[in-house]
Specification:
InterPro entries: Gal_Oxase/kelch_b-propeller, Gal_Oxidase_central_sf, Glyoxal_oxidase_N, GO-like_E_set, Ig-like_fold, Ig_E-set. It comes from Sesamum alatum. By secondary structure, the chain is mainly beta. The chain folds into 2 domains: about 425 residues, 7 Propeller (Methylamine Dehydrogenase, Chain H); about 110 residues, Immunoglobulin-like (Sandwich). Helices cover about 5% and strands about 35% of the residues. It is built from 4 helices and 47 strands. Strands 23, 37, 39, 42, 45, 46 and 47 form a 7-stranded mixed beta sheet that branches. It has a 6-stranded antiparallel beta sheet with strand order 9-8-5-4-40-41, with no helix packed on it. Strand 40 and strand 41 form a beta hairpin. The structure holds 2-acetamido-2-deoxy-beta-D-glucopyranose (NAG) (4 copies). The site of one 2-acetamido-2-deoxy-beta-D-glucopyranose has 10 residues, from strand 29.
Length: about 625
């Protein structure tokens, strides 16, 4: 991409905006907590009775939906504000992008061309989105002919989408982008559980899913994937799959590796260890978290090289689903000259549910979700979990890293677990967590609520402009829009965190050019000069340059998510409008596996639109 060509245009825009600048009155950052007095308590026992929660696994636990009480979808949406420990509620803005995209957004992957691949499962009967004429699937498990789409490509800029044809069942599957930005998507259910599928981004609206002839060695349903420093993908676990494997495989490699840790962390009847949290560490090993345990795996030698203390409190992985992030990696002068420097790594895990909560939910008892978060510095000699409480409990949260290095926690429920009809009391307010805030009382803030419950089978992902795309929620066996308490959600929303408020517009940086990359490709340790503009005559305050890997999000875990704070060596003001900062690209593929990243400039806590760069 020729960044320099756009700079003249940007300059023009900046000059024009000088004349149209309207003075914006600053808005109060926080509004007082809205009162919910007089509303019917959503968690009244009589409302819970009769809804049966059933497992996603028909083979292990018979789905039994013996609903004796039906709830009209016009019930007032339950809110959970009565549980907040803080009186501060405010900031951020929700907008409805699409009332329906016809498909419930169970899985999401942002691609480098600013399109988001969204897909559900295929064996649910017809969706509400029709495939282009002539395209159908036959002899599906649900219907003999299905001419509806279960996947689509959403275009962020135009807010439009087009249906895609995914042939085999991708239900509860996993994925990772490879170094070329192609999605490697693995596994699923029944006929799809050994499948490997590709999605190559294109700009001509021609691309669609590609199913490979080659299969996974082991069926993978509820597994997690991560890209590795050599560009391959590791696929870990899945229901009753106590192993991992790679794609593509080296010829000298075993077809799969037995991984007893996954068997050991399986709770009787409940599991509580599916969709393990995976992070590639700067030493090249893999951090693996399941249930309440975590380890460092040397996947090349199939050896556990470190085990961490058990996280206190609740269970954290499916169906006692919490979420997790690896906190931003802060890069310094070390490493890029070949020295063995590695950044400190801290993993954070939030929410989840008590052991036994899933079996209780099946009986119609929705126990309170976990309120706790744990942080552990995995690179310490003697790491320990530091625990703190979220403003409210949450099961099935989505945790995403913002370009600023803060963490947003959204979606999910206050009671119950993941699974069909297993949760009540959607938590509608996102919270922001500031990992570097020294005062523990100021780390969390509660933001403005959505109106839409996003529970089981919902997803969220960071967009290139700093918004969060939110969709999905289908806690039922089929698409069900009536007669159920939390109807299937086909809508797509965006949440704009407080940094996007219009009163911050003058602070927002616009990247004008990135010098250094050749054809947009950056090499490890390379120096990059990032030129950006601020509002006219805006003096540059504190700023940083970050790189975010686009994640594959499903079931409350954003696989491959990582945020790198780049090492900056110099900054100066070029003109009334332009500023230039020199940074170093990450030093090694262990710190930044090859592929596409969103490069953000963050100025006084306000990020601008990213520029995509590819590191190789
Ligand atoms: C989806 O389609 C069904 C059947 O045509 C219809 O009843 C339902 O209202 C639609 N739902 C949405 C959210 O579009
Ligand atoms: C992959 O599995 C399918 C059955 O699901 C089979 O038809 C196909 O031959 C397998 N591919 C290879 C390369 O073995
Ligand atoms: C839901 O959780 C809250 C605490 O978050 C608890 O007070 C309440 O009793 C729970 N509701 C049910 C129905 O168990
Ligand atoms: C939706 O749920 C209701 C209540 O459980 C049930 O009666 C109905 O058959 C379901 N609809 C579909 C399409 O599964």
């Amino acid at each position: 991409m020729a960044f320099k060509n756009v700079s003249f245009f940007f300059l023009l825009v900046v000059i024009l905006s000088l004349f149209t600048l309207s003075s914006q009155r600053p808005r109060p950052r926080f509004r007082p907590r809205p009162s919910h007095g007089g509303r019917r308590r959503p968690d009244h026992p009589s409302m819970a009775r009769g809804i049966s929660c059933s497992s996603a696994s028909p083979s292990r636990f018979q789905p039994h939906i013996s609903t004796s009480l039906f709830f009209s979808s016009s019930l007032p949406l339950p809110t959970t504000s009565q549980y907040y420990s803080t009186t501060i509620v405010g900031g951020g803005e929700w907008s409805l992008l699409q009332e329906t995209i016809g498909v419930s957004a169970m899985h999401m992957q942002l691609l480098y061309n600013n399109k988001v691949l969204i897909f559900d499962r295929t064996d649910f009967g017809p969706s509400n989105l029709t495939l282009p004429s002539g395209k159908c699937r036959y002899n599906d498990e649900a219907v003999s002919e299905d001419c509806t789409a279960h996947s689509l490509l959403y275009d962020v800029a135009s807010n439009t989408y087009r249906p895609l044809l995914v042939k085999t069942d991708v239900w509860c599957s996993s994925g990772a982008l490879n170094s070329e930005g192609t999605l490697i998507q693995t596994g699923g259910y029944h006929g799809g559980d050994h499948k490997i599928r590709l999605f190559r981004p294109c700009d001509d609206d021609e691309c669609d899913w590609i199913e490979l002839q080659q299969n996974l060695t082991v069926h993978r349903w509820y597994s997690s994937d991560h890209i590795l420093p050599d560009g391959r993908v590791i696929i870990v676990g899945g229901r009753s799959s106590f192993s991992y494997e790679f794609f593509p495989k080296n010829t000298f490699e075993n077809s799969f590796y037995y991984f007893p840790f996954l068997k050991e962390t399986t709770d009787w009847k409940e599991e509580n260890n599916l969709y393990p949290f995976l992070y590639l560490l700067p030493d090249g090993n893999l951090f693996v978290f399941a249930n309440q345990r975590s380890i460092v795996l040397d996947y090349k030698k199939n050896k556990i090289v470190k085990e961490f203390p058990v996280i206190p409190g609740e269970k954290r992985t499916y169906p006692a689903t919490g979420s997790s992030v690896m906190l931003p990696l802060k890069l310094t002068a070390g490493g890029w000259d070949g020295s063995p420097w590695q950044p400190a790594v801290e993993v954070m895990v939030c929410g989840g549910a008590r052991g036994g909560a899933y079996m209780k939910a099946i009986e119609g008892l929705y126990v309170a979700a976990s309120r706790s978060c744990g942080r552990i510095r995995v690179t310490d000699q003697d790491p320990k979990w530091e625990m703190e409480d979220m403003p409210m409990g949450r099961v099935m949260p989505d945790m995403l890293l913002l370009p600023t290095g803060d963490v947003i926690i959204l979606n999910g429920a206050a009671n119950g677990t993941a699974g069909w009809e297993c949760a009540i009391n959607p938590v509608l307010n996102p919270v922001i967590y500031k990992p570097d805030e020294p005062d523990p009382d100021k780390r969390f803030s509660v933001l403005n609520p959505t109106k839409t419950a996003r529970m089981y089978h919902s997803a969220a992902t960071l967009l290139p402009d700093g918004r969060i795309l939110v969709g999905g929620s289908n806690p039922h066996v089929r698409y069900n829009f009536t007669g159920v308490r939390y109807p299937t959600e086909l809508s797509l929303e965006a949440f704009s965190p407080p940094y996007l408020a219009s009163d911050h517009a003058h602070l927002r940086p616009s990247i004008l050019s990135v010098e250094g990359p050749t054809n947009n490709v950056v090499s490890y340790g390379q120096q990059l000069a990032v030129t950006f503009s601020l509002g006219p005559y805006q003096r540059a305050g504190e700023y940083m340059v970050t790189m975010a890997a686009p994640s594959f999000t499903t079931h409350s875990f954003a696989m491959n998510q990582r945020l790198l704070v780049l090492y900056a060596v110099g900054a100066h003001q070029l003109s009334a409008f332009a500023h230039k900062v020199t940074v170093y690209a990450p030093p090694t593929p262990n710190i930044a596996p090859p592929g596409y990243y969103m490069l953000f400039v963050v100025h006084q806590g306000v990020p601008g639109q990213c520029v995509w760069i590819k590191i190789k």
